[in-house]
Amino acid sequence: MATNRSFFGTDGIRGTANIAPMTADVALAVGRAAGAEFTRGGHRHRVVIGKDTRLSGYMLEPALTAGFISVGMDVFLLGPLPTPAVAMLTRSMRADLGVVISASHNPFQDNGIKLFGPDGYKLSDEVEARIEERMRSQDGLAAPESLGRAQRLDDAVGRYIEFVKASFPKGLTLDGLKIVVDCAHGAAYKVAPTVLRELGAKVVALGVEPNGFNINEDCGSTHPAAMQAAVKKHKADLGIALDGDADRVVMADETGALLDGDQLMALIATVWSRSGRLKGDAIVATVMSNLGLERYLDGLGLGLVRTGVGDRYVVEKMRESGINVGGEQSGHIVLSDHATTGDGLIAALQVLAACVEARKPASAVGRLFRPLPQLLKNVAGEPSALDSKPVQAAVREAEAVLGKSGRLLIRPSGTEPLLRVMAEGDDQKTVAAAVDRVISAIAAVVRV
Q1: pLDDT confidence of residue 415
Q2: At what angle are helices 344-358 and 261-274 packed, to 10 degrees?
Q3: In the predicted model, what is the mean pLDDT of the chain?
Q4: Distance from C-alpha of 111 to C-alpha of 444, rounded to nearest angstrom
Q5: Beta strand pairing status for 46-51 and 74-80?
Q6: For residue 317, how far is the Cα from the chain centroid?
Q7: What local confidence, expressed as pLDDT, does residue 2 receive?
Q8: Cross-sheet strand order for the sheet of 407-412
Q9: Cβ contacts of residue 29 below 8 Å, gap of 6+?
Q10: Ramachandran class of 120: left when φ > 0, alpha when ψ lies in -120 to 50, beta otherwise
Q11: b or e along 211-223 (b: 16 or more beta carbons within 10 Å of the residue's beta carbon)?
């Protein structure tokens, strides 16, 4: 696997706006290098670029555009649109590349660049490494007569709305349902309320007034309290909270109780299994998904295949295993029958369809298992601390305390010099003791 990557992380390039690497000059270099990498064959090459509502998108979008034009690529600008919409349009328009300018659930100060190949899937580590290598040179610049052009795709929003609606079962409507949807002042602020209304729902829309600064601010899937409160206030049947680029979703039932990604995947897997749509008799989830989900699926004769943290790794395992449902506890849910990446709206519609078909409230349909007590704590330290004998002894002791009915997971942050220690089991006190035992051992080693 290629390792010479200094710009790309686990989900594209991300950082604080106007501070390296999230600067206009880096964006220009990415456009030039990615365009050169995907200029293959004699056809007229094209790239689609979408973004969320951050102020810095106005800086990064023209820089990327200039880079692509400089190597002869035609650019189609989509404007604010969810990440899954860009993946869909990349395939639909037979584009050579798709780009999303977004830092997902992060605050407005951050931004990011995600790249999709012509198949609508995120790029591999190897391809990203080759793009980084090209960023160090000026290779691939087009002759003056071969420069690309840029134009707006005016009907991008409408195309995605119709695409999402097509995922909802034919013959069903949302007539009679009142739904709260929190768009996090992000990329779905137009499309999400429109989809729900056109399917018949009465919609209470939150987070639909982006100003460049308020994306994800006390709203959306990472701060769902506002959505939950609105469900109770408006006596809604269900609530939906998306993140800034709408590839994540969490929901609430009519009581305001939260349904996280694990509960949503359990429901979708159950419904799809009963109807013969679940491929591989299993779903893919990360190491963070609750053990209660695994036990529930096992009771249905279904499997749970675990991966490292990140929707990209979930998708890779789904493709490798022929499984069509996967996701993360945080709300990235990938339904490969419909999309190549996480799509919060499509996942929410599957849950709504289950409620409509069952003719039962969301509280009766959406809470299928009892989550086991789960605790996650962070401690300062590098992965090398895990090699010390005191830490290894503490890990063995914690695993012994948890026994076969629980589990312990330790992983590096990936973005900060932190180690994340997570445990779960049947007893909350036992779980907390296991985590604290390992945290204390790591802290003691780091202090030495």
Answers
A1: 65
A2: 60
A3: 95
A4: 36
A5: parallel
A6: 15
A7: 43
A8: 374-380, 418-424, 407-412
A9: 67, 135
A10: left
A11: eeebbbeebbbbb
Token pair, residue 46, equals 């094209």
Distance (Å, whole) CA 226 – CA 236: 13
**Prediction pTM value:** 0.93
Helix intervals (H) in 325-427: 344-358, 362-365, 389-402
- The catalytic position among 56, 104, 273, 330 is 104
CA dihedral 319, 320, 323, 325 (to 10 degrees): -50
Question: Would residue 104 show up in a list of annotated catalytic residues for this protein?
Answer: yes
CA 306 to chain centroid, in Å, comes to: 16
Q: Is the peptide bond before 21 cis (omega within 30 degrees of 0)?
A: yes
**Closest Cα partner for 287 from 434, 408, 426?**
408
Helix 156-165 vs helix 191-198: angle between axes, to the nearest 10 degrees?
50
Q: Give the residue carrying structure tokens 């330290």.
A: 381
Question: Could you tell me the pLDDT band of residue 371, with boundaries at 50, 70 and 90?
Answer: very high
